[in-house]
Each structure stands twice: as structure tokens, then as C-alpha cells.
């Protein structure tokens, strides 16, 4: 089995121009004493919006790793794929995020639910799992309800996994199962049963992405109860450690946190929990590297700043269209969005201050940041004009990409405490 390292970070790179700057952040982490494996994730939705192919992500990753002499592993993730979208990712990806969120709650075969229940008498009654706050009590009715809700999703994950394994060979890729893009969070008790069912299906899951409580909006901080998150997170870690032994799942199975990026208030609690338990983690960031590109353009001043302003102005005009696919994961206060005319007057520091995620800066504007986050289609439509400007402003763009990833993500999660 191709094995994912203990700590790994999913980095989105919408335009496939920042892979080197991203590897550089992992090199800085390695120099500070912690190995964090880079994984380039790009979903089918992003490829469709931008008009790119998975092979371009692989090419950018390979080139960056070669140029910077990164000798540790790295991976390319077919992010949030389903049976109907996996095909075009098969040649270039070695990491598959199998998204079965849409199958949650779909009716499961009644007989299959019964089979699960008879197969797992050990899950019934009161179960004390080391590391959990309280024991779980599970009745046959609980199993029926939980498995009834998730079994179709597990069966679908199995079908997709076996399709990939048939094509690539089961030893040649990493399997993640994601259930995060849904309304209802999964409790640690539900996670335990889901893992049991995945093991029954022979899915060698190495990372699992549940939905946690609270809001994980794109590119901004967590909105929710941090204390409750930490309790759930620790319970999930305990459940995973237990499930690995009990159901013979891969020893490196770990949580994948689809963070939407920048959940700064959770990094402290997560870091402490990882430190206390010795667990690994996959942190998946969204495409905020794209925001660092725009920051880099704005910071360069002149033509770069001018183009950044045009991107904002166009995004403002197309706000509803750009926000629609992301409605569940953004909270933009339209009243807080400056007009295009105001922004055209801005100096470099004003634009950078509004966009960069520095909560201590009074200029920081989360609504503007989220709008530009979903506005990458505007840059995609600019085509060569945008890509050329990235090259013109490369020094400032790559500095921002590396600094953001290392200082704001890798350091607080892996290097402090
Ligand atoms: Zn996700």
C-alpha cells in the first residue's frame, strides 16, 4: 500500500503556478524539525470552473519537487471525486478523496443493515474507548439508525475504491473517504460505526474527513464553539485509534480536516490534541494560495495592483453567480463590500490589508476576502493576462504563498507547543 506520512497538508493551487512556493514551506518545516508531506488537491469542480486537467497538477507538482530537490514523498489528490467524475483523475493522481456525502441518508438495503448488526455484537452495549470523555452506549436500534443512514455511503465508497484499485492496482494510491460536505456533523459514535462498515467492505482508508460541528467557511476563521470542537476532535482521535486495532484498518489511519483554510482558532486545540495522543493529521486547505497570488500582485503595486483591482471589480459585478456554488461555505456581508470606485483609489497597503488574513489589522475585510476567494473564475477568464502578471510579480507572489503556508498554518499546527 502506498502509505501517507503522519503529518500532511493539502494545498490547493488553482492555477498550478505556486507549487514551488508551497514546497518551500514544507522545506522550512523540515528544517525546523517536522516532516509535513505536501499533497496537491484539486477538485473536479475547480478543474471545471478553470478549464484545467488533472495532468497539469501532476506536472506542476513533479516540476516543483524536482527543482527544489524535495526527496520526501508528495502526492496529487483527486479531491472530492465520485463514481461519475473519477475517470479523468486515474492517470495522474495517487491520492483519492472519495466523496460520499450525497449518499448519506439514502436508503440502505435492509438485509445489509441486518448483516452488519449480527457481524458486530462487540459494538453493542457500553463501550469504553480509551481517550474518550465518556463511554458510548449503543443499542440495536442505534446501530440500525446509524448504519441505516450511512451504509449506502459506505457501499458507494467501496464501489469507487474498487474501481480505482482495478485501474491503478491497490498498492499504488492513498484512499481518503470524505463526508464533510453535508449539513449534519457526524458524532464520534457514528464515526466508529462508519469505520467498522468501511473495514467490512475492504476499503483501506488512510484518512477520513468527517463533518465537524461549527462553520468552516472558505478562507476565514472557524465560527462555532471551540471547546465543543476540541472535545469532538479528541473523541474522534480516540475512536480512530480504537478502530485501527479493532477492525484492522491501516495503522496510519488519521483524520482529514477539510478546513476551508485558515481555521486559526482551531490550530491550538488541534496541536495540543495531536501532541497529547501522538496522532497524525491531514490538514486540507482550500485554494487560498490563489488569494496569496492576488495579495502578491497588489503588494507589487503598479500593473499588479491595477489587475488585482480589476479582479475585485469584476467579482463584485458577478457576485451572485460566483457565490452560488459555494453558498453553504461562505458568509459575505454585502454591506461590508467596498464599491469598485472606492477600491480603484486604494494604495497597495489598503488592498493588501483588506485581503490578507490578519485579524489584528483593522483594514482586514473578511467579506472582501471571501468574495475574492470564490472569484478565481474571473482570473481564469483573464487567461494569459493573469498568468503573465503572476510571472511579472513572481517575487512578491511566491514570498506571500510560502509565508502564508509556513507562518500561518504549518507553524501553529505542527511546530508550536
Ligand atoms: Zn471537503
Strand runs, count: 10
Structural category:
alpha/beta
Element pattern in H and E: EHEHHEEHEEHEHEHEHEHHHHHHHHH
How far apart the termini lie comes to 33 Å
Largest sheet: 8 strands, parallel, barrel
Shape: globular
Cofactors, ions and other ligands in the entry: zinc ion
In which order are the strands of the major sheet placed?
Answer: 1-2-3-4-7-8-9-10
Compact summary:
With 417 residues, the protein is an alpha/beta fold. It has helices at residues 19-31, 44-50, 54-67, 110-119, 140-168, 188-200, 226-247, 264-277, 289-300, 302-317, 319-323, 340-344, 348-355, 366-374, 376-382, 384-392, 394-415, and strands at residues 7-11, 37-43, 75-81, 95-99, 125-127, 136-138, 174-178, 207-209, 254-258, 281-284.
Describe the 3D structure:
It is a single chain. With 417 residues, the chain is of the alpha/beta class. It folds into two domains: 7-286, TIM Barrel (Alpha-Beta Barrel), CATH 3.20.20; 291-393, no CATH class. It has helices spanning 19-31, 44-50, 54-67, 110-119, 140-168, 188-200, 226-247, 264-277, 289-300, 302-317, 319-323, 340-344, 348-355, 366-374, 376-382, 384-392, 394-415; strands at 7-11, 37-43, 75-81, 95-99, 125-127, 136-138, 174-178, 207-209, 254-258, 281-284. The strands form two sheets. It has an eight-stranded parallel β-barrel with strand order 1-2-3-4-7-8-9-10, surrounded by five helices. Helix 1 links the parallel strand 1 and strand 2. The radius of gyration is 22 Å and the shape is globular. Bound molecules: zinc ion. Residues 80, 178, 180-181, 209, 258 line the site of zinc ion (ZN).
Amino acid at each position: 500500500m502506498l502509505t501517507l506520512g503522519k503529518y500532511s497538508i493539502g494545498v490547493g493551487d488553482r492555477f498550478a503556478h505556486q507549487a514551488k512556493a508551497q514546497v518551500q514551506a514544507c522545506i522550512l518545516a523540515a528544517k525546523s524539525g517536522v516532516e509535513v508531506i505536501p499533497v496537491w488537491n484539486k477538485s473536479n469542480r475547480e478543474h471545471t470552473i478553470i478549464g484545467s486537467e488533472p495532468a497539469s497538477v501532476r506536472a506542476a507538482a513533479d516540476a516543483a519537487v524536482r527543482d527544489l530537490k524535495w526527496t520526501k514523498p508528495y502526492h496529487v489528490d483527486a479531491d472530492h471525486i465520485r463514481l461519475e467524475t473519477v475517470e479523468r483523475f486515474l492517470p495522474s493522481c495517487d491520492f483519492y478523496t472519495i466523496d460520499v456525502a450525497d449518499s448519506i441518508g439514502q436508503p440502505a438495503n435492509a438485509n445489509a443493515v441486518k448483516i452488519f448488526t449480527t457481524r458486530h455484537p462487540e459494538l453493542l452495549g457500553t463501550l469504553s474507548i480509551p481517550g474518550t470523555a465518556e463511554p458510548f452506549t449503543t443499542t440495536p436500534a442505534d446501530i440500525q439508525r446509524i448504519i441505516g443512514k450511512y451504509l449506502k455511503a459506505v457501499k458507494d465508497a467501496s464501489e469507487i475504491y474498487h474501481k480505482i484499485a482495478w485501474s491503478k492496482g491497490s498498492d499504488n494510491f492513498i484512499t481518503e473517504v470524505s463526508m464533510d460536505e453535508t449539513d449534519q456533523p457526524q458524532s464520534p459514535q457514528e464515526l466508529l460505526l462508519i469505520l467498522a462498515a468501511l473495514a467490512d467492505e475492504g476499503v483501506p482508508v488512510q484518512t477520513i474527513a468527517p463533518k465537524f460541528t461549527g462553520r468552516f467557511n472558505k478562507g476565514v476563521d472557524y465560527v462555532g464553539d471551540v471547546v465543543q470542537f476540541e472535545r469532538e476532535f479528541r473523541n474522534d482521535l480516540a475512536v480512530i485509534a480504537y478502530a485501527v486495532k479493532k477492525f484492522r484498518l491501516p495503522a496510519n489511519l488519521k483524520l482529514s480536516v477539510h478546513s476551508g483554510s485558515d481555521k486559526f482558532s482551531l490550530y491550538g486545540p488541534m496541536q495540543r490534541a495531536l501532541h497529547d495522543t501522538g496522532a497524525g493529521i491531514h490538514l486540507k486547505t482550500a485554494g487560498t494560495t490563489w488569494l496569496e497570488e492576488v495579495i502578491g500582485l497588489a503588494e507589487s503595486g503598479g500593473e499588479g495592483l491595477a489587475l488585482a483591482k480589476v479582479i475585485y471589480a469584476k467579482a463584485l459585478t458577478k457576485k451572485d453567480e460566483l457565490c452560488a456554488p459555494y453558498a453553504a461555505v461562505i458568509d459575505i456581508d454585502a454591506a461590508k463590500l467596498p464599491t469598485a470606485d472606492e477600491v480603484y483609489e486604494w494604495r497597495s497597503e489598503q488592498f493588501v490589508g483588506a485581503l490578507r488574513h490578519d485579524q489584528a489589522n483593522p483594514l482586514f475585510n473578511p467579506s472582501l476576502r471571501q468574495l475574492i476567494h470564490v472569484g478565481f473564475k474571473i482570473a481564469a477568464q483573464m487567461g494569459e493576462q493573469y498568468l503573465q502578471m503572476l510571472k511579472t510579480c513572481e517575487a512578491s507572489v511566491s514570498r506571500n504563498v510560502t509565508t502564508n503556508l509556513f507562518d500561518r498554518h504549518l507553524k501553529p499546527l505542527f511546530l508550536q507547543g
